[in-house]
C-alpha cells in the first residue's frame, strides 16, 4: 500500500482497531495488511506534525505481536525509549489523536499515563525501563498477582549502565519478566560499544543469516510505502572469524535467551513471545528489526533513518521548513575551527553525534571523537580521564541528559578542577518533546558545583566567543548552554562592563533587566515598551551566569529595581543566585525574578509555553512597569497586609513563574 498525497485517514482494517482485542481476532493475512496500513498512517501523520517516524516504522509487527500475546493493560508494557510507542498508541485506541501529535492538546510523543490506562511510564530517557520492570515484577510477586511485565528495549538502550545493573538484579530475583531487545543496530545513529560489536558477531552466525534472508524476502514482497529497498540490516565487522551467539552472555547471568527472530514477522515474534511468557522466569527475546522499515526515504537516510523529522513531503521525504541557521550548526562549525587550532580538543557524545553537532568534528577528526553510547555518567568521567591525560574534552549532550551525570560532574570533574567543557544543546523550554526533554534544570542543578562556570550565549556571535572562552579555562569545568531551533540575528552590545554586556540603556536608571542567554532580544524589546511609560531600563547580558559577575552586582546597586528573565527553573536559578550575591554585598535593591516554576510543563511549541509562563516581551514589560511604578506609590501597610492575606500560595502568578524579593 502506498501513501498518497493527502492521505490521512486510517485504512479499512486500521479503522476497525479500537483496542488490542481487535488485533487478537485478525488472521495472518489481515495482520500483514494491517501492518501496511499502519505504516501508511504513520508516514501521513508524522509528515504533517513531525515526530519519531523511523523507530516506529521498525516496530509495527513487533507491537502487533505483543498485543496478541499479552493482555494490556493488565499485563504491563514498558518502552525504552518511549518514542517507539506510536504503534502501541494506535492499537490502544488513540488513532484520532495523531492529527495533533506532539502539539498543544494532542497526543504526547511518548507514553502518557494521562492518555491511557495502557501507558504506565513515559520513559523518554533511555536505559531505565529494565529497572522499572524489575521493581514492577517484584511488586506483583509480593502481592501474589499473576501479571506479565514486558520491557521493550532498543539495542542502543543496552549501552546504558542502568540496563546492566537492572539485568543483574532481574537475574537474581528470577521473577517472570519478558525483555524484548529491539535490535536495529541503532539508537539515533548506529549503536556504539562492546555490546554492539558482540551482536554484530552474531550477525555472522548462519542462523542469523537465515533471519536476514527472511527479512529480505519480506522487504521485496510486502506492499508498503513505495518499493522497499533491501540493504544489509547491520554492519558486519571485518576480520571476525567465529560467530559467538549472545545467549551465552545472557544465560551466564541467569536469563533465558530466545532468538534471534525476524521482528517484521508477526507469527515468528508471536511464537517467541508465547514461549517466553510460559517460561516462568526472566527471558530475553532478541528481535531483529530495521529502523525506518518500509518507507524508502527513511531507509535511505544514513544519518538516523528519519529518527525524528520535522514536517516533510511524503513523496520524497524532504523537510518542508525553510532552511535556517541553527544553534547546533553554529556550535559545530566553531568547534571544528577551534579544533583546527588546538590539537588537544577532543569531542565526546552519548549516542547523539548528529543532533548535538559533534558529528562535524568526527568527520574531520574521527580519531578525536568518542561516542560512548547512551551513557552520560561514563561520558563525564571518561572526559575527566581525558583531561587528566592532557586533553580538553568537549562533551556535547542535550541539557536534560546531563542531569543524569550530576555526581560525575561534581566529584569526578569539578572536585579535581579538571578542564572539561560541557555543551548543552536544547537548553530551556524545547517544545513538542514534553517535560522530560525540557532543559530547564541545568542552571539550578549545576549552579551549586564549586568552581564550575556556566555561559549562556544570546546569539551566534556570543556562542562562538563563549565557546572559545570556555575551552580556554584550564582550572575547572565549564558549561555552555543554548536553546533549540534557529538563531536570532546577532545583537551587539552597546558597551561592556567587565564581562557583562550592556544591550540597552537610558538616562534614567530605574530598572536593571538581566536577560539571560537567548532572552537578550526580548530584554531590548521590553526596554522599549517600558520607556513608553516614562521609565528607564538598562538591559544587560551577563554572558557568564555562574559565578555571578561582580560587575552585575555593582550595576544592580545603581538601579531602583532589578528584574531577571531566564529560561530555566526559578528555584536556584540566576535570579536566586543574583539575589544571594546582592545580599552578600549589602545591596538592598528589590529584585524580581521571572523564569520557569518548578512544575511539569505540558508539551507544546516553545512559543506557546513561554506565553503561558508570561515570558513574552508584552508580559514582561507589563510586569516591569507595574513593579517600578509601585516603588513611587505611598506605602499603605493595612492594604498591603490585606492583600498578602488574600494572595494564594499558588495560582496564576505561581503558574507563570513570577516572584519578588527585597
| Mean pLDDT across all amino acids | 85
Provide the structure class. Answer: alpha/beta
Q: Categorize the overall geometry.
A: globular
Q: Based on DSSP secondary structure assignment, what is the total number of beta strands?
A: 19
Largest sheet: 7 strands, mixed
Rg of Cα set: 27 Å
Distance between the termini: 66 Å
Helix content: 25-40%
The number of helical segments is 27
Strand order of the largest sheet: 7-6-8-9-11-10-16
Low-pLDDT stretches are 1-8, 187-245, 638-655
Beta content: 5-15%
Question: How is this structure best described in words?
Answer:
The protein is globular. Helix 6 packs parallel to helix 7 and helix 21 packs across helix 25 (617-631). The strands form three sheets. The protein has a seven-stranded mixed β-sheet, sandwiched between helices. The protein has a seven-stranded mixed β-sheet with strand order 12-13-15-14-17-18-19, sandwiched between helices. It is α/β, with parallel strands linked by helices and 662 residues long.
Topology:
Blueprint: H1 20-24, H2 28-49, H3 54-57, H4 60-69, E1 76-80, H5 86-91, H6 129-143, E2 149-154, H7 161-173, E3 177-183, H8 194-202, H9 206-221, H10 247-251, E4 256-262, H11 266-277, E5 282-288, H12 296-299, H13 327-341, E6 345-349, H14 353-356, H15 358-364, E7 369-371, H16 376-388, E8 392-398, H17 399-402, H18 406-414, E9 421-425, H19 442-445, E10 453-455, H20 460-472, E11 478-481, E12 495-497, E13 500-504, E14 511-515, H21 520-531, E15 537-541, E16 544-546, H22 550-557, E17 561-569, H23 574-584, E18 591-596, H24 606-612, H25 617-631, H26 637-646, H27 652-655, E19 658-661
Parallel strand pairs: 1-2, 2-3, 3-5, 4-5, 6-7, 6-8, 8-9, 9-11, 10-11, 14-15, 14-17, 17-18
Antiparallel strand pairs: 10-16, 12-13, 13-15, 18-19
Helix pairs in contact: 4-11, 6-7, 13-15, 13-20, 16-18, 21-25
Amino acid at each position: 500500500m502506498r501513501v498518497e498525497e493527502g492521505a490521512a485517514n486510517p485504512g479499512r482494517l486500521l479503522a476497525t482497531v479500537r483496542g488490542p482485542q481487535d488485533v487478537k481476532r485478525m488472521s495472518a493475512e489481515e495482520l500483514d495488511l494491517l501492518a501496511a496500513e499502519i505504516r501508511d498512517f504513520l508516514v501521513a501523520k508524522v509528515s504533517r506534525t513531525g515526530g519519531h517516524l523511523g523507530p516506529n516504522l521498525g516496530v509495527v509487527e513487533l507491537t502487533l505481536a505483543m498485543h496478541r500475546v499479552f493482555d494490556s493493560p493488565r499485563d504491563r508494557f514498558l518502552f525504552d525509549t518511549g518514542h517507539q510507542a506510536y504503534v502501541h498508541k494506535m492499537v490502544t485506541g488513540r488513532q484520532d489523536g495523531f492529527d495533533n501529535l506532539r502539539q498543544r492538546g494532542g497526543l504526547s510523543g511518548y507514553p502518557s499515563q494521562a492518555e491511557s490506562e495502557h501507558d504506565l511510564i513515559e520513559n523518554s530517557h533511555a536505559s531505565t525501563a529494565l529497572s522499572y520492570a524489575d521493581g514492577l515484577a517484584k511488586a506483583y510477586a509480593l502481592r501474589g498477582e499473576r501479571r506479565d511485565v514486558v520491557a521493550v528495549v532498543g539495542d542502543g538502550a543496552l549501552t546504558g549502565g542502568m540496563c546492566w545493573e537492572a539485568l543483574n538484579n532481574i537475574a537474581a530475583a528470577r521473577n517472570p519478566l519478558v525483555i524484548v531487545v529491539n535490535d536495529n543496530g541503532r539508537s539515533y545513529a548506529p549503536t556504539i560499544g562492546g555490546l554492539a560489536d558482540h551482536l554484530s558477531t552474531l550477525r555472522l552466525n548462519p542462523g542469523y543469516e537465515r533471519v536476514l534472508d527472511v527479512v529480505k524476502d519480506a522487504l521485496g514482497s510486502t506492499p508498503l510505502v513505495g518499493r522497499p529497498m533491501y540493504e544489509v540490516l547491520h554492519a558486519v565487522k571485518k576480520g571476525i572469524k567465529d560467530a559467538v551467539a549472545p545467549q551465552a552472555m545472557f544465560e551466564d547471568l541467569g536469563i533465558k535467551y530466545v532468538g534471534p527472530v525476524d521482528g517484521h514477522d508477526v507469527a515468528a515474534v508471536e511464537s517467541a513471545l508465547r514461549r517466553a511468557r510460559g517460561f516462568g522466569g526472566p527471558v530475553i527475546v532478541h528481535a531483529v528489526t530495521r529502523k525506518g522499515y518500509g518507507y524508502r526515504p527513511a531507509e535511505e537516510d544514513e544519518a538516523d533513518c528519519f529518527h525524528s523529522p520535522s514536517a516533510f513531503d511524503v513523496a520524497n521525504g524532504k523537510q518542508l521548513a525553510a532552511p535556517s541557521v541553527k544553534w547546533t550548526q553554529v556550535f559545530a562549525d566553531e568547534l571544528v575551527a577551534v579544533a583546527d587550532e588546538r590539537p588537544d580538543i577532543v569531542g565526546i557524545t552519548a549516542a547523539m553525534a548528529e543532533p548535538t553537532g559533534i558529528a562535524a568534528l568526527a568527520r574531520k577528526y574521527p580519531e578525536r571523537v568518542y561516542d560512548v553510547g547512551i551513557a552520560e555518567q561514563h561520558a563525564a568521567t571518561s572526559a575527566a580521564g581525558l583531561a587528566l591525560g592532557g586533553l580538553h574534552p568537549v562533551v556535547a549532550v542535550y541539557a536534560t541528559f546531563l542531569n543524569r551525570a550530576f555526581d560525575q560532574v561534581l566529584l569526578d570533574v569539578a572536585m579535581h578542577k579538571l578542564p572539561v567543557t560541557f555543551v548543552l544543546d536544547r537548553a530551556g523550554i524545547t517544545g513538542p518533546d514534553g517535560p522530560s526533554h525540557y532543559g530547564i534544570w541545568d542552571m539550578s542543578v549545576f549552579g551549586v558545583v564549586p568552581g564550575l562556570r556556566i555561559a549562556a550565549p544570546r546569539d551566534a556571535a556570543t556562542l562562538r566567543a563563549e565557546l572559545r572562552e570556555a575551552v580556554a579555562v584550564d582550572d575547572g569545568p565549564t558549561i555552555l548552554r543554548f536553546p533549540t531551533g534557529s538563531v536570532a540575528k546577532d545583537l551587539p552590545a552597546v558597551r561592556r562592563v567587565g564581562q557583562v554586556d550592556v544591550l540597552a540603556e537610558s538616562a534614567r536608571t530605574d530598572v536593571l533587566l538581566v536577560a539571560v542567554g537567548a532572552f537578550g532580544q526580548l530584554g531590548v524589546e521590553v526596554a522599549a515598551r517600558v520607556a513608553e511609560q516614562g521609565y528607564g531600563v538598562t538591559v544587560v547580558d551577563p554572558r557568564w551566569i555562574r559565578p555571578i559577575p561582580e560587575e552585575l552586582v555593582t550595576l544592580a546597586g545603581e538601579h531602583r529595581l532589578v528584574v531577571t528573565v531566564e529560561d530555566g527553573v526559578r528555584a536556584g536559578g540566576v535570579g536566586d543566585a543574583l539575589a544571594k550575591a546582592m545580599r552578600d554585598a549589602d545591596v538592598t535593591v528589590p529584585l524580581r525574578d521571572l523564569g520557569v516554576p518548578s512544575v511539569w510543563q505540558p508539551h507544546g511549541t516553545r512559543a506557546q509555553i513561554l506565553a503561558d509562563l508570561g515570558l513574552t516581551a508584552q508580559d514582561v514589560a507589563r510586569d516591569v512597569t507595574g513593579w517600578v511604578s509601585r516603588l513611587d506609590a505611598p506605602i499603605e501597610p493595612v492594604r498591603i497586609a490585606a492583600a498578602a492575606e488574600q494572595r494564594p500560595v499558588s495560582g496564576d502568578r505561581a503558574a507563570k513563574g513570577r516572584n519578588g524579593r527585597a
